[in-house]
Each structure stands twice: as structure tokens, then as C-alpha cells.
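Need residues for this backbone.
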């Protein structure tokens, strides 16, 4: 592979608890049924603009959702530092891939500002050529928009590109974009679900990225 496209949450960094705490607080504050941990984990990888209307049983244009989105981002940013940590070996693997001449990108359901802040705080932003957050696409994961935007911008060879993610939505996005896919088993919530997507590569450790 020449090009490595990474999801962020639970692929590069373990950030599950920050999302869970923030989602549950937002829904409690809004007097809506609070999603369980299993519900949140099962939909992690989707942007809140997709999951919140579903969980809250609200139309996507409902004005209440705008406050919920803002509250979530405020809660999340307040606790993300102590709850977001790189998976062991990730930084070393990114450095090795970059040193070997590969191009690295991030395609995430986070907003771009939040994503940039996270990459800077974790001291890995220097390894990535570019990033695509949920605010930069017309259609969210599992739609292929984020990957295709990078393919067009940098004239990437899809046959030599791989999308790495922990969730089925990441793998579905990669397939729809026509690139290879790699399941990040080290961060996956449901390993059986990602196996069922038949990824090109099923990885147990980040170090295996150096061999594909």
C-alpha cells in the first residue's frame, strides 16, 4: 500500500469513554431516553448528526438537535484530554510509515476543528498530509465522500490505498470508495461485525500495518 487512510476514534486513539460520558450527559440534560453504552458503542463511527436524531427520535432538522450537538461538543472538549490516549505502538507505526515514504490521511466523523485539536494534543499531526472531518463532506460515513475527496485532491491510486478503521462504517466507506480496507481489531467494539464485512486485511495489532 502507498496510501493509508485512518479513522480516528478507536483506531488511532482510544476515546470511547469521552464519547459515552458526553452523549449520556447530553441526553439526560435534554430529558431524552439516555442511550446505553452498548447503543453508543454500536454506532460509534457515525457522526452525531446521524446518531442523535435516531436515538432522540427527532427529525434531523429539529431545532433541539442543534443545542444537543453544541452541548456534546462542549462536554467532549472538556474531558477529551484525560480520556483520549493513543493505542500502544500507533505513534511508532505512523513514524515508520511516513519514513518509508507512504502518504497518511485521516477520515473521521469528528468535526475538523476537533480532529485537528486531537491530533495536535497527541503529537501525531506531523505524520498526516491532510484530514477530512464530518463538516467537509456532503454525505457522512458510510458514504465514500471523505475518501473520494482525498483521492481527487491528491490523485491517489485507489488500488494502492487502504482505509483503516474499527467500525463497520469505516469498512463500508472504504468499499464504496473502491479502496482496500483494513479492520483495526485492536479498537473494535464488535469483532464479529467487522469480520462479516470481509475486509481486505484483518489486523490484531497496529504493527501489522507495516506489512501490508
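Answer:
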Amino acid at each position: 500500500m502507498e496510501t493509508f487512510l485512518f479513522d480516528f476514534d478507536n483506531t488511532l486513539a482510544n476515546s470511547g469513554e469521552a464519547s459515552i460520558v458526553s452523549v449520556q450527559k447530553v441526553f439526560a440534560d435534554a430529558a431524552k431516553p439516555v442511550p446505553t453504552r452498548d447503543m453508543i458503542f454500536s454506532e460509534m463511527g457515525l457522526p452525531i448528526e446521524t446518531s442523535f436524531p435516531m436515538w432522540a427520535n427527532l427529525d434531523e432538522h429539529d431545532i433541539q438537535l442543534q443545542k444537543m450537538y453544541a452541548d456534546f461538543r462542549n462536554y467532549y472538549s472538556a474531558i477529551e484530554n484525560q480520556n483520549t490516549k493513543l493505542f500502544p505502538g500507533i505513534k511508532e507505526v505512523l513514524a515508520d510509515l511516513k519514513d518509508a515514504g507512504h502518504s497518511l490521511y485521516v477520515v473521521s466523523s469528528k468535526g475538523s476543528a476537533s480532529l485537528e485539536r486531537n491530533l495536535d494534543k497527541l503529537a501525531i499531526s506531523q505524520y498526516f498530509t491532510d484530514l477530512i472531518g464530518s463538516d467537509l463532506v456532503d454525505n457522512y460515513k458510510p458514504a465514500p465522500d471523505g475518501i473520494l475527496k482525498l483521492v481527487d485532491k491528491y490523485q491517489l491510486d485507489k488500488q494502492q490505498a487502504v482505509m483503516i478503521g474499527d467500525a463497520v462504517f469505516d469498512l463500508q466507506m472504504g468499499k464504496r470508495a473502491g479502496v482496500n480496507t483494513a479492520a483495526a481489531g485492536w479498537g473494535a467494539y464488535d469483532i464479529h461485525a467487522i469480520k462479516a464485512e470481509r475486509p481486505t486485511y484483518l489486523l490484531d495489532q497496529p504493527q501489522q500495518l507495516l506489512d501490508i
